[in-house]
Design a protein that fits this description.
Blueprint: H1 5-8, H2 23-38, H3 42-55, H4 60-72, H5 76-89, H6 96-106, H7 110-122, H8 127-143, H9 147-160, H10 165-189, H11 194-206, H12 210-223, H13 230-241, H14 248-262, H15 267-279, H16 283-296, H17 301-313, H18 317-330, H19 335-347, H20 351-370
């Protein structure tokens, strides 16, 4: 749907037409045209203002109104010359250059359209005009194959209008296309590079093509066995394969440990390895790894939860309170953290605090169950903490 530009633009006055010749007839055409425009009866509005233009060909406001009507009707080939003539007659008409630029953009005349679209996007204080100008500017840059500038505009639009469905839709398509074009360019300039294999591995992984992802990441290691982060990605892929391959979890742990040998500061690898050791009841090693992850990433929520629940398993519930409380300070809506906190208080025989934490766990769990059914297609970078099924909630 075309934007209702006539609402947001300054309504160029045509009331003064009554002072010219044929004033009664012109006033009647003007009133009929304005009424038809307001009711979106664009053909009737155009007919009325075409009659006005014949009677008063040198009145800029009539040409401007006619251009606006044709723009709203999607007749951009007719809108552009009318708007040009209005600007020629009276260059000071507000926002008319922006409307002309939008018409030119619709006609694919992007180079000419860009300067005024930039003005409408960057300088106007009118929110609706800025939005429309931004969308057209994004389109113009794309048409001119200036994809980096299109992405910049899309980022600004999503920041200015974070809940606008149309803007988010166009941004998602633009970002996906930009990523694709970058990958194509990478394949052209560096077809034998590890960067191409790394990009391929990440693409396969995001699409769930796990065997292909493994192959691509292993190709990276053939080129550079010590490239940082690759063993971590291999471990993540193996974790995803664990449901179909009993050996995959063991291989995942080996990959995470290898990553830590290359880069002890990789908090993600330390966390994933720690979680696998915790699930296998190797709590001392889990404690070391969770502590390492938190050392290098103090606000790592999942590691804080893992560390807290590991300390409870090590019968050190008093020490578990600090990381669990910090995790709640970072995210008070994580029901798993509240459950683990209730277990720590339970081990400390603090019934009052245990009940409070458990009640919050139940509230958040019920809230989550009621609101379930979201998109859920993105895969987190770190495995989420869960309440162990073998340890049902107790209070």
């Amino acid at each position: 749907m075309l934007p209702r530009i006539w609402i947001l633009l300054c309504l160029w006055s045509v009331c003064g037409l009554a002072q010219t010749a044929n004033d009664a007839l012109m006033q009647r055409y003007a009133q009929a045209g304005e009424k038809a425009l307001a009711e979106q009866r664009y053909d009737e509005a155009a007919q009325a203002f075409e009659k006005l233009r014949e009677l008063a060909p040198n009145v800029a406001e009539i040409h401007a109104r006619l251009g606006l009507i044709y723009y709203q009707a999607g007749k951009f080939e007719q809108a552009a010359p009318a708007l040009r003539q209005a600007l020629k007659l009276k260059p000071t008409l507000p926002n008319l250059d922006v409307l002309l630029a939008m018409s030119l953009s619709e006609l694919g005349q992007y180079q000419e359209a860009v300067p005024a679209l930039q003005k409408g996007f960057k300088q106007t204080k009118d929110v609706a005009l800025r939005r429309s100008s931004g969308l057209q500017l994004q389109r113009a840059y794309t048409g001119l194959q200036q994809d980096d500038k299109s992405v910049e505009v899309a980022l600004e639009l999503t920041q200015a209008f974070p809940k606008d469905p149309e803007i988010l839709y166009h941004a998602s398509r633009l970002f996906a296309n930009y990523a694709y074009l970058s990958a194509v360019k990478l394949s052209q300039v560096a077809p034998d590079s590890l960067w191409l294999q790394l990009a391929a591995g990440e693409a396969h992984e995001s699409q769930g093509h796990l065997d292909s992802a493994l192959g691509a990441y292993r190709e990276v290691l053939k080129i550079n066995p010590n490239h940082p982060g690759v063993h971590f990605r291999l471990g993540r892929v193996q974790l995803a394969r664990a449901a179909q391959d009993a050996k995959a979890e063991v291989e995942a742990l080996q990959e995470f440990e290898r990553e830590l040998q290359l880069d002890p500061t990789n908090a993600n690898a330390a966390y994933e390895a720690g979680e696998l050791h915790r699930k296998a009841a190797r709590f001392d090693r889990a404690f070391e790894l969770f502590s390492l992850a938190v050392k290098h990433y103090p606000d790592f929520e999942e590691s804080l939860v893992g560390l807290g629940r590991t300390l409870v398993s090590l019968r050190k519930p008093d020490q578990a309170l600090l990381p669990l409380r910090k995790a709640i300070a970072l995210n008070a809506n994580n029901e798993v953290t509240w459950f683990q906190l209730s277990q720590a208080y339970r081990a400390l025989n603090n019934a009052a605090e245990q009940q409070k934490a458990f009640a919050e766990y139940q509230r958040l769990r019920n809230q989550k169950l009621q609101s379930s059914g979201g998109m859920g297609f993105s895969r987190p970078e770190a495995t989420r903490q869960k309440v162990d099924p073998e340890a049902p909630p107790r209070h």
